[in-house]
Amino acid sequence: MNLFAKLAERDAQGKPLRIGLIGAGKFATMFLHQARRLPGVHLVGVVDLRPEVAKSNMAFVGWMPEQYSAHSLDEAAITGATHVGDDYRAMVRHPAIDIVIECTGHPVAAVDHCLYAFEQGKHVVNVTVEADAFVGLGLSQAADRAGVVYSMAYGDQPALVCDLVDWARACGFPVVAAGRGHKWLPHYRQSTPETVWENWGISREQAERGRLNPKMFNSFLDGSKPAIESAAICNACGLDAPDEGLSFPPGSVDDLPNLMRPVAEGGILPRKGTVEVISCLRHDGSMIPYDIRNGVWVCFEGDTEYLRNCFAEYKVMTDTTGRYSVNYKRWHLIGLELGISIASVGLRREATGVAREFRADVAAIAKRSLKVGEILDGEGGFTVTGGLRPASLSVRHGYLPLGLAQNVRLLRPVAADTALTWSDVAVDTTTNAFRLRMDIEKCIGLVPAAGSEGGLSGASMKIAETKDEYYGP
Predict the structure, then answer these.
(1) Same domain, 295 and 339
(2) How many CA atoms are closer than 13 Å to the CA of 472, on its beta-carbon side?
(3) CA torsion sign, 158 to 161 to 163 to 166?
(4) What is the value of pTM for the model shown?
(5) pLDDT in tens, 267-318
(6) Is 82 among the domain residues?
(7) 316 in the same domain as 177
(8) Do 146 and 172 share a structural domain?
Protein backbone atom coordinates (compact mmCIF):
# COMPACT_ATOMS: atom_id res chain seq x y z
CA MET A 1 0.00 0.00 0.00
CA ASN A 2 1.11 3.59 -0.72
CA LEU A 3 4.29 2.57 -2.52
CA PHE A 4 3.74 5.08 -5.30
CA ALA A 5 3.15 7.91 -2.82
CA LYS A 6 6.35 7.00 -1.00
CA LEU A 7 8.29 6.93 -4.26
CA ALA A 8 6.90 10.36 -5.15
CA GLU A 9 7.99 11.63 -1.74
CA ARG A 10 11.53 10.38 -2.33
CA ASP A 11 11.48 12.06 -5.72
CA ALA A 12 10.40 15.38 -4.19
CA GLN A 13 13.20 15.09 -1.65
CA GLY A 14 15.77 14.43 -4.36
CA LYS A 15 16.62 11.10 -2.74
CA PRO A 16 15.78 8.45 -5.34
CA LEU A 17 16.33 4.73 -4.92
CA ARG A 18 19.49 4.09 -6.91
CA ILE A 19 19.44 0.96 -9.01
CA GLY A 20 22.04 -1.15 -10.79
CA LEU A 21 20.82 -3.68 -13.37
CA ILE A 22 22.82 -6.78 -14.36
CA GLY A 23 21.62 -8.28 -17.64
CA ALA A 24 19.58 -6.58 -20.34
CA GLY A 25 17.47 -9.35 -21.86
CA LYS A 26 13.69 -9.62 -22.27
CA PHE A 27 12.65 -9.20 -18.63
CA ALA A 28 15.12 -6.35 -18.16
CA THR A 29 13.93 -4.65 -21.33
CA MET A 30 10.37 -4.67 -20.03
CA PHE A 31 11.59 -3.05 -16.82
CA LEU A 32 13.67 -0.55 -18.80
CA HIS A 33 10.49 0.60 -20.51
CA GLN A 34 8.90 1.36 -17.14
CA ALA A 35 11.98 2.61 -15.26
CA ARG A 36 11.79 6.15 -16.63
CA ARG A 37 8.15 6.36 -15.49
CA LEU A 38 8.90 5.62 -11.83
CA PRO A 39 9.33 8.67 -9.59
CA GLY A 40 11.97 8.33 -6.94
CA VAL A 41 13.95 5.73 -8.90
CA HIS A 42 17.26 6.38 -10.65
CA LEU A 43 18.69 3.63 -12.82
CA VAL A 44 22.35 4.49 -12.29
CA GLY A 45 23.90 1.63 -14.24
CA VAL A 46 23.17 -1.22 -16.64
CA VAL A 47 25.80 -3.89 -17.22
CA ASP A 48 25.72 -6.66 -19.77
CA LEU A 49 28.36 -8.83 -21.39
CA ARG A 50 27.35 -7.07 -24.60
CA PRO A 51 26.81 -3.39 -23.78
CA GLU A 52 25.82 -2.68 -27.36
CA VAL A 53 22.85 -5.03 -26.94
CA ALA A 54 21.83 -3.26 -23.75
CA LYS A 55 21.91 0.09 -25.55
CA SER A 56 19.95 -1.36 -28.46
CA ASN A 57 17.25 -2.67 -26.12
CA MET A 58 17.09 0.66 -24.31
CA ALA A 59 16.60 2.46 -27.62
CA PHE A 60 14.04 -0.19 -28.61
CA VAL A 61 11.82 0.78 -25.66
CA GLY A 62 12.15 4.55 -26.06
CA TRP A 63 15.31 5.64 -24.29
CA MET A 64 17.04 8.56 -25.97
CA PRO A 65 20.83 8.30 -26.45
CA GLU A 66 21.51 11.14 -24.04
CA GLN A 67 19.72 9.21 -21.29
CA TYR A 68 22.26 6.38 -21.38
CA SER A 69 25.28 8.38 -22.45
CA ALA A 70 27.00 8.71 -19.05
CA HIS A 71 30.63 7.70 -19.57
CA SER A 72 31.14 6.59 -15.97
CA LEU A 73 29.16 5.63 -12.91
CA ASP A 74 30.37 8.78 -11.19
CA GLU A 75 28.95 10.86 -14.02
CA ALA A 76 25.67 8.94 -13.96
CA ALA A 77 25.32 9.46 -10.21
CA ILE A 78 25.77 13.22 -10.60
CA THR A 79 23.80 13.92 -13.76
CA GLY A 80 20.90 11.51 -13.37
CA ALA A 81 21.77 9.72 -16.61
CA THR A 82 22.53 5.99 -16.87
CA HIS A 83 25.91 4.33 -17.37
CA VAL A 84 26.01 1.26 -19.64
CA GLY A 85 29.01 -1.07 -19.38
CA ASP A 86 30.20 -4.64 -18.89
CA ASP A 87 31.83 -4.60 -15.42
CA TYR A 88 29.30 -5.80 -12.87
CA ARG A 89 31.75 -5.63 -9.97
CA ALA A 90 32.53 -1.96 -10.59
CA MET A 91 28.83 -1.16 -10.72
CA VAL A 92 27.83 -3.21 -7.68
CA ARG A 93 30.51 -1.79 -5.42
CA HIS A 94 29.91 1.81 -6.50
CA PRO A 95 28.53 3.88 -3.59
CA ALA A 96 25.78 5.29 -5.83
CA ILE A 97 24.06 1.88 -6.00
CA ASP A 98 21.48 0.91 -3.35
CA ILE A 99 19.73 -2.05 -4.99
CA VAL A 100 21.06 -4.57 -7.50
CA ILE A 101 18.67 -6.26 -9.91
CA GLU A 102 20.05 -9.62 -11.07
CA CYS A 103 18.48 -10.25 -14.45
CA THR A 104 20.86 -12.49 -16.40
CA GLY A 105 18.85 -15.71 -16.39
CA HIS A 106 22.12 -17.59 -15.85
CA PRO A 107 21.85 -19.37 -12.47
CA VAL A 108 25.57 -19.94 -11.81
CA ALA A 109 26.46 -16.35 -12.67
CA ALA A 110 23.45 -15.09 -10.72
CA VAL A 111 24.73 -16.70 -7.53
CA ASP A 112 28.09 -14.94 -8.01
CA HIS A 113 26.36 -11.62 -8.61
CA CYS A 114 24.08 -11.96 -5.57
CA LEU A 115 26.87 -12.97 -3.19
CA TYR A 116 29.10 -10.15 -4.38
CA ALA A 117 26.27 -7.65 -3.88
CA PHE A 118 25.73 -8.92 -0.33
CA GLU A 119 29.45 -8.49 0.37
CA GLN A 120 29.15 -4.88 -0.77
CA GLY A 121 26.14 -4.26 1.47
CA LYS A 122 23.64 -3.99 -1.39
CA HIS A 123 20.07 -5.24 -1.49
CA VAL A 124 19.25 -7.68 -4.32
CA VAL A 125 16.12 -8.31 -6.34
CA ASN A 126 16.79 -11.62 -8.08
CA VAL A 127 14.93 -12.10 -11.34
CA THR A 128 16.90 -15.29 -12.06
CA VAL A 129 14.51 -17.64 -10.32
CA GLU A 130 16.53 -20.60 -11.65
CA ALA A 131 19.14 -19.79 -9.00
CA ASP A 132 16.53 -19.30 -6.31
CA ALA A 133 15.02 -22.71 -7.03
CA PHE A 134 18.13 -24.68 -6.04
CA VAL A 135 20.00 -22.36 -3.63
CA GLY A 136 17.41 -19.77 -2.61
CA LEU A 137 17.67 -20.63 1.06
CA GLY A 138 21.44 -20.23 0.94
CA LEU A 139 21.12 -16.84 -0.73
CA SER A 140 18.56 -15.59 1.77
CA GLN A 141 20.74 -16.76 4.66
CA ALA A 142 23.74 -14.99 3.16
CA ALA A 143 21.73 -11.79 2.79
CA ASP A 144 20.57 -12.01 6.40
CA ARG A 145 24.15 -12.33 7.59
CA ALA A 146 25.11 -9.28 5.52
CA GLY A 147 22.18 -7.26 6.88
CA VAL A 148 20.61 -6.67 3.47
CA VAL A 149 17.38 -7.67 1.75
CA TYR A 150 17.20 -10.49 -0.80
CA SER A 151 13.97 -10.71 -2.77
CA MET A 152 12.18 -12.48 -5.56
CA ALA A 153 11.06 -10.25 -8.41
CA TYR A 154 7.48 -9.03 -8.50
CA GLY A 155 6.05 -9.58 -11.95
CA ASP A 156 7.36 -13.11 -12.13
CA GLN A 157 4.80 -15.62 -10.95
CA PRO A 158 6.51 -16.85 -7.74
CA ALA A 159 6.43 -13.39 -6.13
CA LEU A 160 2.83 -12.90 -7.25
CA VAL A 161 1.87 -16.23 -5.70
CA CYS A 162 3.68 -15.23 -2.50
CA ASP A 163 1.53 -12.09 -2.47
CA LEU A 164 -1.69 -14.09 -2.81
CA VAL A 165 -0.64 -16.65 -0.18
CA ASP A 166 0.24 -13.82 2.19
CA TRP A 167 -3.15 -12.22 1.51
CA ALA A 168 -4.96 -15.45 2.39
CA ARG A 169 -2.99 -16.08 5.56
CA ALA A 170 -3.15 -12.46 6.70
CA CYS A 171 -6.94 -12.69 6.31
CA GLY A 172 -6.94 -15.80 8.50
CA PHE A 173 -7.69 -18.39 5.79
CA PRO A 174 -5.92 -21.78 5.70
CA VAL A 175 -4.09 -22.15 2.38
CA VAL A 176 -4.93 -25.40 0.62
CA ALA A 177 -2.87 -24.98 -2.55
CA ALA A 178 -1.27 -22.32 -4.71
CA GLY A 179 0.37 -22.07 -8.08
CA ARG A 180 0.29 -20.74 -11.59
CA GLY A 181 -1.21 -21.52 -14.97
CA HIS A 182 0.43 -22.95 -18.06
CA LYS A 183 -0.20 -24.27 -21.55
CA TRP A 184 0.57 -27.97 -21.23
CA LEU A 185 0.30 -31.26 -23.06
CA PRO A 186 2.56 -34.20 -22.16
CA HIS A 187 4.49 -34.16 -25.45
CA TYR A 188 5.66 -30.61 -24.74
CA ARG A 189 8.20 -32.24 -22.42
CA GLN A 190 10.31 -33.03 -25.52
CA SER A 191 9.99 -29.55 -27.05
CA THR A 192 13.20 -27.85 -28.20
CA PRO A 193 14.12 -24.31 -29.31
CA GLU A 194 13.45 -25.46 -32.88
CA THR A 195 9.84 -26.46 -32.18
CA VAL A 196 8.81 -23.95 -29.51
CA TRP A 197 6.94 -21.37 -31.57
CA GLU A 198 4.61 -23.83 -33.31
CA ASN A 199 3.43 -25.03 -29.89
CA TRP A 200 3.62 -21.65 -28.12
CA GLY A 201 1.06 -20.11 -30.42
CA ILE A 202 2.94 -17.30 -32.16
CA SER A 203 4.78 -17.08 -35.46
CA ARG A 204 8.54 -16.85 -35.88
CA GLU A 205 8.00 -13.34 -37.22
CA GLN A 206 6.21 -12.30 -34.02
CA ALA A 207 8.97 -13.87 -31.94
CA GLU A 208 11.65 -11.98 -33.85
CA ARG A 209 9.71 -8.71 -33.60
CA GLY A 210 9.57 -9.09 -29.82
CA ARG A 211 13.24 -10.16 -29.64
CA LEU A 212 12.12 -13.35 -27.92
CA ASN A 213 14.74 -15.96 -27.02
CA PRO A 214 13.52 -19.40 -28.23
CA LYS A 215 15.53 -21.30 -25.61
CA MET A 216 14.17 -19.19 -22.80
CA PHE A 217 10.58 -19.48 -24.00
CA ASN A 218 11.02 -23.20 -24.54
CA SER A 219 11.94 -23.53 -20.87
CA PHE A 220 8.35 -22.53 -20.13
CA LEU A 221 6.80 -24.83 -22.70
CA ASP A 222 8.76 -27.98 -21.80
CA GLY A 223 7.80 -27.77 -18.13
CA SER A 224 11.15 -26.56 -16.80
CA LYS A 225 10.10 -23.07 -15.79
CA PRO A 226 6.83 -24.21 -14.18
CA ALA A 227 8.86 -26.66 -12.07
CA ILE A 228 11.44 -23.97 -11.21
CA GLU A 229 8.81 -21.43 -10.23
CA SER A 230 6.84 -24.02 -8.26
CA ALA A 231 9.97 -24.92 -6.28
CA ALA A 232 10.53 -21.24 -5.51
CA ILE A 233 6.92 -20.93 -4.35
CA CYS A 234 7.27 -23.95 -2.06
CA ASN A 235 10.45 -22.69 -0.47
CA ALA A 236 9.08 -19.18 0.08
CA CYS A 237 5.54 -20.08 1.17
CA GLY A 238 6.14 -23.25 3.16
CA LEU A 239 4.18 -25.40 0.71
CA ASP A 240 5.06 -28.90 -0.49
CA ALA A 241 5.85 -30.33 -3.89
CA PRO A 242 3.46 -33.17 -4.75
CA ASP A 243 5.18 -36.52 -4.14
CA GLU A 244 4.69 -37.50 -7.78
CA GLY A 245 5.59 -34.12 -9.27
CA LEU A 246 3.37 -31.65 -11.09
CA SER A 247 0.33 -33.16 -12.80
CA PHE A 248 -0.82 -30.12 -14.86
CA PRO A 249 -4.58 -30.76 -14.50
CA PRO A 250 -6.67 -28.93 -17.12
CA GLY A 251 -9.15 -26.39 -15.87
CA SER A 252 -10.61 -22.90 -16.05
CA VAL A 253 -10.57 -20.32 -13.29
CA ASP A 254 -14.03 -21.49 -12.27
CA ASP A 255 -12.79 -25.10 -12.04
CA LEU A 256 -10.04 -24.26 -9.55
CA PRO A 257 -11.99 -24.68 -6.28
CA ASN A 258 -13.14 -28.16 -7.29
CA LEU A 259 -9.73 -29.22 -8.60
CA MET A 260 -7.68 -27.81 -5.73
CA ARG A 261 -9.10 -29.87 -2.90
CA PRO A 262 -7.97 -33.25 -1.56
CA VAL A 263 -8.66 -36.41 -3.54
CA ALA A 264 -10.84 -37.67 -0.69
CA GLU A 265 -13.12 -34.66 -1.23
CA GLY A 266 -13.32 -34.95 -5.02
CA GLY A 267 -10.26 -32.93 -6.02
CA ILE A 268 -6.79 -33.85 -7.28
CA LEU A 269 -4.57 -32.87 -4.34
CA PRO A 270 -2.70 -35.66 -2.56
CA ARG A 271 -2.98 -33.53 0.58
CA LYS A 272 -3.52 -29.93 1.60
CA GLY A 273 -0.66 -27.47 1.45
CA THR A 274 0.86 -28.24 -1.97
CA VAL A 275 1.64 -26.45 -5.24
CA GLU A 276 0.24 -27.28 -8.65
CA VAL A 277 0.19 -25.91 -12.20
CA ILE A 278 -3.10 -25.68 -14.13
CA SER A 279 -3.18 -26.28 -17.88
CA CYS A 280 -5.29 -24.17 -20.23
CA LEU A 281 -5.63 -27.13 -22.63
CA ARG A 282 -7.89 -30.14 -22.38
CA HIS A 283 -6.28 -33.51 -22.96
CA ASP A 284 -7.42 -33.40 -26.60
CA GLY A 285 -5.56 -30.11 -27.10
CA SER A 286 -8.62 -27.86 -27.20
CA MET A 287 -8.55 -24.53 -25.36
CA ILE A 288 -10.45 -24.09 -22.11
CA PRO A 289 -12.51 -20.88 -21.86
CA TYR A 290 -11.58 -18.38 -19.14
CA ASP A 291 -8.24 -20.06 -18.52
CA ILE A 292 -5.46 -18.97 -16.18
CA ARG A 293 -2.54 -19.74 -18.49
CA ASN A 294 -0.79 -16.44 -17.74
CA GLY A 295 -1.93 -16.05 -14.17
CA VAL A 296 -1.54 -17.16 -10.56
CA TRP A 297 -3.92 -18.35 -7.89
CA VAL A 298 -4.33 -19.43 -4.27
CA CYS A 299 -6.98 -21.86 -3.01
CA PHE A 300 -8.13 -21.23 0.56
CA GLU A 301 -10.54 -22.96 2.89
CA GLY A 302 -13.65 -21.95 4.75
CA ASP A 303 -12.93 -24.34 7.59
CA THR A 304 -15.78 -23.18 9.84
CA GLU A 305 -19.51 -23.04 9.31
CA TYR A 306 -19.42 -19.27 9.79
CA LEU A 307 -16.90 -18.79 6.97
CA ARG A 308 -18.87 -21.04 4.64
CA ASN A 309 -22.02 -19.08 5.41
CA CYS A 310 -20.15 -15.84 4.60
CA PHE A 311 -19.05 -17.34 1.28
CA ALA A 312 -22.69 -18.11 0.47
CA GLU A 313 -24.00 -14.73 1.62
CA TYR A 314 -21.51 -12.76 -0.47
CA LYS A 315 -21.78 -15.04 -3.51
CA VAL A 316 -18.14 -16.13 -3.35
CA MET A 317 -17.16 -18.66 -6.01
CA THR A 318 -16.56 -22.00 -4.28
CA ASP A 319 -16.38 -25.70 -4.96
CA THR A 320 -19.56 -27.77 -4.94
CA THR A 321 -19.46 -28.15 -1.14
CA GLY A 322 -19.08 -24.44 -0.44
CA ARG A 323 -15.87 -25.09 1.50
CA TYR A 324 -13.05 -24.11 -0.88
CA SER A 325 -12.58 -20.88 -2.78
CA VAL A 326 -9.87 -19.21 -4.83
CA ASN A 327 -8.32 -15.80 -5.34
CA TYR A 328 -6.36 -15.17 -8.51
CA LYS A 329 -4.70 -12.78 -10.92
CA ARG A 330 -5.42 -13.86 -14.44
CA TRP A 331 -2.33 -12.15 -15.88
CA HIS A 332 1.21 -11.41 -14.86
CA LEU A 333 3.13 -8.60 -16.54
CA ILE A 334 6.70 -9.81 -15.94
CA GLY A 335 9.27 -6.97 -16.00
CA LEU A 336 6.57 -4.31 -16.28
CA GLU A 337 5.74 -4.97 -12.59
CA LEU A 338 9.27 -4.97 -11.19
CA GLY A 339 8.81 -1.52 -9.68
CA ILE A 340 6.82 -3.14 -6.86
CA SER A 341 9.89 -5.10 -5.70
CA ILE A 342 12.15 -2.07 -6.02
CA ALA A 343 9.82 0.08 -3.93
CA SER A 344 9.17 -2.65 -1.34
CA VAL A 345 12.85 -3.45 -0.87
CA GLY A 346 14.09 0.14 -1.05
CA LEU A 347 11.41 1.84 1.03
CA ARG A 348 10.31 -0.86 3.47
CA ARG A 349 13.22 -3.29 3.45
CA GLU A 350 10.65 -6.00 2.72
CA ALA A 351 11.13 -8.79 0.18
CA THR A 352 8.37 -9.58 -2.29
CA GLY A 353 8.95 -13.27 -1.60
CA VAL A 354 12.06 -14.99 -0.25
CA ALA A 355 13.05 -18.62 0.39
CA ARG A 356 13.01 -19.50 4.09
CA GLU A 357 13.00 -23.28 3.73
CA PHE A 358 14.21 -25.96 1.34
CA ARG A 359 11.09 -28.02 0.69
CA ALA A 360 11.24 -28.44 -3.09
CA ASP A 361 13.88 -28.91 -5.77
CA VAL A 362 14.04 -29.25 -9.57
CA ALA A 363 15.86 -32.27 -10.95
CA ALA A 364 17.34 -32.40 -14.45
CA ILE A 365 15.42 -34.99 -16.50
CA ALA A 366 16.73 -36.40 -19.79
CA LYS A 367 14.57 -35.33 -22.74
CA ARG A 368 15.94 -38.19 -24.82
CA SER A 369 18.54 -40.93 -24.47
CA LEU A 370 21.82 -39.18 -23.72
CA LYS A 371 25.27 -40.51 -24.58
CA VAL A 372 28.61 -40.39 -22.80
CA GLY A 373 30.46 -37.19 -23.66
CA GLU A 374 27.39 -35.14 -24.54
CA ILE A 375 27.29 -31.61 -23.11
CA LEU A 376 24.10 -30.69 -21.29
CA ASP A 377 22.61 -27.40 -22.45
CA GLY A 378 20.42 -26.53 -19.46
CA GLU A 379 16.80 -25.49 -19.19
CA GLY A 380 14.87 -24.98 -22.40
CA GLY A 381 17.48 -26.71 -24.53
CA PHE A 382 17.76 -29.98 -26.40
CA THR A 383 18.99 -32.34 -23.66
CA VAL A 384 17.18 -31.88 -20.34
CA THR A 385 13.99 -30.58 -18.81
CA GLY A 386 13.07 -29.96 -15.19
CA GLY A 387 10.99 -32.08 -12.84
CA LEU A 388 9.67 -30.80 -9.51
CA ARG A 389 10.67 -32.99 -6.55
CA PRO A 390 10.29 -32.85 -2.79
CA ALA A 391 13.71 -31.65 -1.60
CA SER A 392 14.23 -34.63 0.69
CA LEU A 393 13.74 -37.06 -2.20
CA SER A 394 15.97 -35.07 -4.54
CA VAL A 395 18.84 -34.83 -2.07
CA ARG A 396 18.51 -38.41 -0.87
CA HIS A 397 18.82 -39.74 -4.41
CA GLY A 398 21.52 -37.31 -5.46
CA TYR A 399 19.57 -35.75 -8.31
CA LEU A 400 21.39 -33.14 -10.37
CA PRO A 401 19.68 -29.74 -9.98
CA LEU A 402 18.50 -28.31 -13.28
CA GLY A 403 20.27 -25.06 -12.42
CA LEU A 404 23.64 -26.83 -12.62
CA ALA A 405 22.86 -28.86 -15.76
CA GLN A 406 24.37 -26.48 -18.28
CA ASN A 407 27.77 -26.87 -19.98
CA VAL A 408 28.52 -30.07 -18.08
CA ARG A 409 29.71 -33.29 -19.72
CA LEU A 410 28.03 -36.66 -19.30
CA LEU A 411 30.17 -39.41 -17.81
CA ARG A 412 27.74 -42.24 -18.56
CA PRO A 413 24.62 -42.79 -20.66
CA VAL A 414 21.25 -41.73 -19.31
CA ALA A 415 17.94 -43.10 -20.54
CA ALA A 416 15.17 -40.79 -21.69
CA ASP A 417 12.80 -39.56 -18.97
CA THR A 418 15.34 -40.43 -16.25
CA ALA A 419 16.49 -38.03 -13.54
CA LEU A 420 20.22 -37.32 -13.80
CA THR A 421 22.39 -37.63 -10.73
CA TRP A 422 25.62 -35.99 -9.60
CA SER A 423 27.52 -39.13 -10.57
CA ASP A 424 26.28 -38.89 -14.18
CA VAL A 425 28.16 -35.67 -14.91
CA ALA A 426 31.49 -33.91 -14.55
CA VAL A 427 30.26 -30.84 -12.69
CA ASP A 428 32.47 -27.87 -11.89
CA THR A 429 32.93 -28.05 -8.12
CA THR A 430 34.71 -24.70 -7.87
CA THR A 431 31.70 -22.44 -8.44
CA ASN A 432 29.93 -20.55 -5.69
CA ALA A 433 26.67 -22.08 -6.89
CA PHE A 434 27.96 -25.63 -6.36
CA ARG A 435 29.46 -24.80 -2.98
CA LEU A 436 26.30 -23.13 -1.77
CA ARG A 437 24.23 -26.10 -2.88
CA MET A 438 26.56 -28.48 -1.03
CA ASP A 439 26.27 -26.33 2.09
CA ILE A 440 22.50 -26.71 1.91
CA GLU A 441 22.66 -30.46 1.37
CA LYS A 442 25.12 -30.88 4.23
CA CYS A 443 22.82 -29.00 6.58
CA ILE A 444 20.00 -31.34 5.64
CA GLY A 445 22.18 -34.24 6.75
CA LEU A 446 20.92 -36.72 4.17
CA VAL A 447 24.20 -37.01 2.23
CA PRO A 448 27.89 -36.55 3.06
CA ALA A 449 29.18 -33.05 2.43
CA ALA A 450 30.92 -32.83 -0.95
CA GLY A 451 31.53 -29.11 -1.21
CA SER A 452 33.15 -26.31 0.70
CA GLU A 453 33.91 -26.33 4.39
CA GLY A 454 31.53 -24.62 6.76
CA GLY A 455 27.90 -24.25 5.94
CA LEU A 456 24.92 -21.99 6.39
CA SER A 457 25.27 -20.38 9.79
CA GLY A 458 22.20 -21.25 11.77
CA ALA A 459 20.23 -22.33 8.72
CA SER A 460 16.94 -23.93 9.61
CA MET A 461 16.07 -26.70 7.17
CA LYS A 462 12.55 -28.06 7.18
CA ILE A 463 12.23 -30.99 4.81
CA ALA A 464 8.95 -32.59 3.87
CA GLU A 465 8.98 -36.35 4.29
CA THR A 466 8.17 -38.27 1.14
CA LYS A 467 8.39 -41.65 -0.54
CA ASP A 468 11.65 -43.10 -1.78
CA GLU A 469 10.58 -44.25 -5.22
CA TYR A 470 11.49 -42.43 -8.40
CA TYR A 471 8.58 -40.59 -9.97
CA GLY A 472 8.07 -39.23 -13.45
CA PRO A 473 8.83 -35.65 -14.46
Answers:
(1) no
(2) 6
(3) negative
(4) 0.92
(5) 999 999 999 999 999 999 999 999 999 999 999 999 999 999 999 999 999 9
(6) yes
(7) yes
(8) no
